[in-house]
Amino acid sequence: MRVLFSVFPATAHTLPVIPLAWALQNAGHEVRIATHPDAAGAATQAGLAAVPVGGSEDLRELADFSRNPALLGHLGGNLSVASPDCPDWGPKWFRMTRVFAGLRPLLEELTGVAVRWRPDLVLWDPFCLPAAVAARLSGAAHARVLWGRDNIAWLRQRSRRYLAQAQGGTWPDPLEEVMQQLLEPYGLPYEEELLLGQWTIDPLPPGVRLPAPDVRYEGMRWASYSGGGPVPDWLHTKPVRPRVCLSWGTGEPGAQPRPGGGAPLSEVLGALAELDVELVSARSGLAAPAVDVPGRVRLLDRLPLSQLLPGCSAVVHQGGSTVFSAAAAHGVPQLVVPTSFWDEEGTAGYLEHRNAGRVLDPARWDATTLRDALSALLADRRVHEQARALRDELAMLPGPSALVPVLERLTGLHQRI
């Protein structure tokens, strides 16, 4: 069958779909990845066919996030659903719909690709609603591929419950305008699957999932991929001291100093270097401020997590799904100072619940408390045992290759010939 992936215009969203695209291609299916020209290289370097879309100036601002993840906070602000009550869900749902609206310039190109190429299955980023419209017009089955917690489904469910209870006209649904702009040009009626997919592929542990009873989830084991590159010689030998990965930023791992206050990167490096550890911090080749690098610290331009984490005794990060999932898959204990952008607080809470890591209050930490917490984490045998237990549990989930027959069956059920 023909499978078209549609990805948010950023490399950080392209990389997570590559293992599933490989699995489909290795099973004999024809795969193409539709993404912004600036992110297409991530697909082609992985040996996959890329379809550049959204190269107009209308998407330039969104594409800039791929090169400068520090801008992510301006995309929609705090879209985090930290708990199943989330009292400020209303403003967050409104901001979420504005992100949807920002992807509207993809509509014409994606529908053109889908109608001409006629995919059997469209797998789309949860922000990329034009892909669902393109699938409907071409007759393809379609599903979302998550890269983090499903905040969209939870917020949608919460907004629908409010609208059902509210008096008429008290609060207009901000989604209505977005969907009207997408559907009116083609005369299509709104259906909920155009927002939430016919089903959803979820690569996170089931325990991280928010309640969304109307969504059909297909679980998939996280397959860590953050690009390739030569393996440095020092990774071939066992470290003399415990190796610690510091991933301190947004977007790609370690790309920018952690937003939202706290100690600057130079203080963090200095404090952690006081411990008897080998500290590795990767900046992903993106802009970062000049800092003094203490001894026993490797400050690298870029190093794939799949190469680094297997030899690590701990990882220190801000709670993003990419680092959380990669560390969990390798059984590495985690120390998290969560930001509040998407699902960082949720993954941090899950780690604490599983006793596979430790969490610091983002409003009450400094370089010294971070150092002391890392020291305690490294010495806690129970946390190391639970991190390995979580790894073994996640290994039981179906990997990308095992998911291929499921996708084939669901495509047959949902495809509109």
Number of self-contained structural domains: 2
What Rg, in angstroms, do the CA atoms define? Answer: 21 Å
The helix tally amounts to 18
CATH superfamily of the largest domain: Glycogen Phosphorylase B
- Spatial ordering of strands, largest sheet: 3-2-1-4-5-6-7
Task: Describe the fold and architecture.
The chain has 417 residues and is α/β, with parallel strands linked by helices. It has two domains: 238 residues, Rossmann fold (3-Layer(aba) Sandwich); 162 residues, Rossmann fold. The chain contains 18 helices and 13 strands. The protein has a seven-stranded parallel sheet, sandwiched between helices. The protein has a six-stranded parallel sheet with strand order 10-9-8-11-12-13, sandwiched between helices. α2 crosses α18, α6 crosses α9 and α12 packs parallel to α16. The longest helix is centred in the middle third of the chain and has 15 residues. The radius of gyration is 21 Å and the shape is globular.
Q: Which secondary structure elements does this structure contain, and how are they paired or packed?
A:
Layout: E1 2-6, H1 11-14, H2 18-26, E2 30-35, H3 40-44, E3 49-52, H4 60-67, H5 73-76, H6 89-102, H7 107-117, E4 121-124, H8 129-138, E5 141-145, H9 151-165, H10 174-183, H11 193-196, E6 200-202, E7 217-219, E8 243-247, H12 265-272, E9 278-282, E10 297-300, H13 305-308, E11 314-317, H14 321-329, E12 334-336, H15 344-354, E13 357-359, H16 367-379, H17 381-394, H18 400-414
Parallel strand pairs: 1-2, 1-4, 2-3, 4-5, 5-6, 6-7, 8-9, 8-11, 9-10, 11-12, 12-13
Helix pairs in contact: 2-18, 6-9, 7-8, 12-16
